[in-house]
Structure formats: C-alpha cells, structure tokens
Amino acid sequence: MFGLGWTEVAVIAIVAILIFGPKKIPELGSALGKTLRGFKEELKNPNEDNNNPEREE
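Above: the chain sequence. Below: its structure as tokens.
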C-alpha cells in the first residue's frame, strides 16, 4: 500500500484517531468513499453537458 509498512500505517491510524476522534473517522471514510465513487462514475460516463464547447452560458 503505497510502499508503506504495517508500522507506518499503524502510526498514521493512531495520529488520525488523535486528530479527528474515533467518532468522526467513519464519517470521513464514508464521505471519501462517496466522493471516490462519484469520481469513478463521472470518468466512466462523462456528462454531455460539460463536454459541449458550442453551448454558451
């Protein structure tokens, strides 16, 4: 995972818990997952509205 060992991942997790608190981390993970899912969907199926250079707003 990005060239990190288990000890580095554990230190990052502990620091994240200290900074955000144990109740906030699941919310952050959920928000990140939704963001990544939406990004992947847009890459897979681009919206035609954004790709039309002739349209003026």
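The mean pLDDT is 82.
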